[in-house]
Amino acid sequence: MSSSVLYDAPGPRTRARSRVISFISTAVIVILLGWFIFALGQPRETAGGATLAGLWDPSRWDIALEPVLWQGLLWRGLVLGTLRAAGLAAVLAIIIGVLFALGRMAKNPFIRIPTTVLLEFFRGMPVLLMMLFILLGLKVGDYWAVVWALAVYNGAIIGEALRSGVASLPRGQSEAAASLGFTGMQTRFIIELPQAFRQMLPIIVAQLVVLLKDTSLAYIVAYPELLRVSYQLKDFYGSGRYSFTLFFLTLIIYLIVNLSLSAFARWLARRSGSQAVGATRKGNKKDGPAATPPPGQTGIDTSLLSIGQPDGLTGRTRGENAP
Amino acid sequence: MTAIFENFDLVLQGFLMTLRLLAVGAIGAAVIGIVIAFLRISPVPAMRNIATVYTELVRNTPLTLVFFLIIVVLPVLDFGVDSTIGAYIALSVYTSPFIAEALRSGINGVPLGQAEAARSLGFNFGQTVSLIIMPQAMRMVVPPLINVIIALAKNTSVASGFLVVEMVAISKTLANRHGDQVIGILFGIALLYLVITIPLGLIASYVERKVAVLR
């Protein structure tokens, strides 16, 4: 049986045809890419009549051997800039997320309603605006502006994820806690939150990948993270000769870091998925194994999360959306 | 806040620019996203792979970097575009894989049994797709698509860093001009963003409740 709802398992003729189409489309893509790379490599005439070397010319790439460049990009940009901000923001975001989740689930409406309003406010505005808010309004310096903006925004989203995690727990969990004489807070902290946290771990990790990606917004508020350092290095070397080289290296670094983190998030989702989500999935047998997506495209669709909304097809229970 | 009302024409201009970025970005992303989604579910493995590589690469590139490429790097290489058009392109390209993923997960989310049942009734491929699969997929796709649009609305703010005069850029100008009312100005701008995002969120939850496919 085929794995897609749209077409059958192919027969021999379809397989042959599919091989031909595969070959042709791959060839077209390879030729287009090759042409593009070749075109980039051609020397160009400027309006002034001077000839610029092609993009793959060694004269554009000789800085790749300089330790100053790598020290700047990897140490100053990636570690001291991007990762230092992202690391602290991630820790704070989880703490803020727990606080938001507690506030939104509070029995007291005087806590619950203001938290809800605040949460919707934080979720609905751009991170960049929040950075500006903190930078211009609170005057705490660029590092803290970046860290707090990322922490609060992602904290709001993690809070929603945790809350929907708690909401999806079987009611017996809190009833059992109550029967043992746990107080409300004990139930939350000892019984419910640990389970919700485990269940929502893939979503939370995916959100932390988003957080890491969003640190590049700090470029706009002039915090020296990877992209800003790369831009500074361009100025340092003068002329536009190295601008493409530097951009290319920066892009590669971002892709390596983000792709490996995304892969980690997916691995985590696959690994914890069967145990943690098992309880809810068992009641849903009729979909059968066919409904589980192929490996690598995990059930909890982290793709949709990468833009900052932990809902849609994911962890949210139906009908609990915006205010 | 008074600075907002005094400079209402400026703020309105920024608001309209944000809306324009949102509209053009959404349409552009939808066009690219639909193509990628179709490649992604095509029966030909090579096309699926091409779409997957595109999705992974674009999704793992920060939006700022996409903007930077189109508005700062390309002009150096003589492929320059005007910064507003560059912003349209950057937003469209960056959002397209998210649209594609939302569409794909909607189609893949239809249980296999539905197609099997259709076939067992003698439906041909066209009938299966148009009568059974698509109607269900479309309903499942609307809420995640709206969430993508909401994210896009917030992402338009990145354009402010690249010479596009939209709401955040206006807020920076106003904040520099009225140093005593910074918080009020930023708060006002934030509320204008909520004017865009909250109704969209409400529509998403309404649609989700209204057209959900019960299983």
UniProtKB/TrEMBL annotation, chain A:
Keyword terms, alphabetized: Cell membrane, Membrane, Transmembrane, Transmembrane helix, Transport
Main location: membrane
PROSITE patterns: ABC_TM1
Localisation: Cell membrane
Topology versus the membrane: Multi-pass membrane protein
Transmembrane segments: 20-38, 83-103, 115-137, 143-162, 200-222, 242-265
Family statement drawn from the similarity comment of this UniProt entry: Belongs to the binding-protein-dependent transport system permease family.
Name under which the protein is recorded: Amino acid ABC transporter permease
TrEMBL record, chain B:
Membrane topology annotation: Multi-pass membrane protein
Keywords assigned by UniProt, alphabetized: Amino-acid transport, Cell membrane, Membrane, Transmembrane, Transmembrane helix, Transport
Keyword Membrane in annotation: yes
One Pfam assignment: BPD_transp_1
Ranges for domain ABC transmembrane type-1: 15-204
Membrane-spanning segments: 21-41, 61-81, 145-170, 182-207
Superkingdom, taxonomy of origin: Bacteria
Principal cellular location given in the protein's record: membrane
Compartments (UniProt record): Cell membrane
Record NCBIfam families: HEQRo_perm_3TM
PANTHER family cross-referenced by the UniProt entry: AMINO-ACID ABC TRANSPORTER PERMEASE PROTEIN YHDX-RELATED (PTHR30614:SF37), MEMBRANE COMPONENT OF AMINO ACID ABC TRANSPORTER (PTHR30614)
Protein family: Belongs to the binding-protein-dependent transport system permease family. HisMQ subfamily.
Protein name, as recorded: Amino acid ABC transporter permease
The organism's taxonomic lineage, starting at the top: Bacteria, Bacillati, Actinomycetota, Actinomycetes, Micrococcales
